[in-house]
Write a structure and sequence with these properties.
Order of helices and strands: HHHHHEHHHHEH
Shape: globular
Largest sheet: 2 strands, antiparallel
Oligomer: single chain
Length: about 280
């Protein structure tokens, strides 16, 4: 029997380690972000730019700043998680051997989700939209890295320090909320910090263990084919919202709609699980 303090619930040691690493990742991310902002502000003030101009510049370059800050934090923290592995290049090994096997239900879920959004929101082309391919691509790539790096970190932690499934479900919800709040507090000027971002994180994290072992293929398909297009093309992104999106929803799509379809997607995934995983 595992030892625990009287009157306190037992906390799986690996869960605590996951929490330390994930919190450290976001704290380091915030530190890098502050350093980048300080450097940007310093040079702008040297050029006698107004504070409002600096704020505008930071907003329009926010995806570049986020990509740099988050990627740097990820690669630094991955050096620490690499200590847990016996592999010489643990991240490359993870990408090579934790790809997973293609599952048909991921495409079914993506198709139903997108169809549901189309029927509910009735997307139309923005007549006033001025096509800027570079901004659309940056928005798309930024969203992919925004969700993908967090998913990859969680995959790394669970590969080296696996959790029991009941704790995995708790981690999915807790870390999704943490990721949302940390990002919202850091990039407070983002235009769309709403609940759909939380549900997107939950879906990404859940798909890391769609059937049995931890793999990255399903989560990244979900990001590339569903989440990133919804954010970049239809205005659900956290930073720019619909500023550079060519389509808009005639009927507003928010946390309620995304939440309902996310729950239905999770129910569908769970119903397709054919291999019983011990709790």
């Amino acid at each position: 029997m595992k030892d625990k303090l009287p009157g306190l619930p037992y906390v799986e040691p690996n869960f605590s380690k996951h929490l330390y690493y994930f919190t450290g990742y976001y704290l380091f991310h915030a530190l890098i972000y502050l350093i980048v902002l300080s450097v940007i502000a310093f040079f702008h003030f040297l050029l006698d730019h107004r504070l409002a101009d600096i704020q505008d510049w930071i907003f329009f370059q926010s995806w570049w700043i986020l990509i740099f800050s988050k990627s740097t934090a990820f690669f630094v923290i991955s050096r620490f998680t690499g200590i847990l592995s016996f592999e010489r290049k643990p991240l490359i090994h993870l990408l090579q051997y934790k790809k997973g096997i293609f599952r048909t239900e991921i495409y079914v879920a993506i198709s139903i989700f997108l169809l549901g959004m189309a029927l509910l929101g009735r997307p139309v082309w923005r007549e006033e939209f001025e096509w800027e391919l570079s901004s659309v691509l940056l928005n798309y790539i930024g969203v992919c890295l925004f969700f993908g790096l967090d998913g990859l970190l969680l995959l790394t932690l669970n590969d080296e320090l696996p959790l029991k499934r009941k704790n995995w479900y708790i981690e999915i919800v807790l870390f999704s909320l943490m990721a949302f709040l940390f990002n919202k507090w850091t990039y407070f000027y983002g235009l769309n910090w709403s609940l759909e971002i939380v549900f997107f994180f939950i879906l990404v994290f859940y798909c890391l263990r769609l059937r049995g072992g931890y793999v990255w293929l399903h989560s990244f398909l979900l990001i590339l084919l569903m989440i990133a297009p919804l954010c970049a093309l239809f205005g659900l992104g956290p930073l720019w919202k619909g500023l550079y999106s060519p389509f808009i929803f005639e009927k507003s799509i928010g946390g309620l709609e995304i939440g309902v379809f996310s729950v239905l997607t999770l129910i569908y995934f769970n119903s397709k699980r054919f291999k019983k995983i011990p709790l």
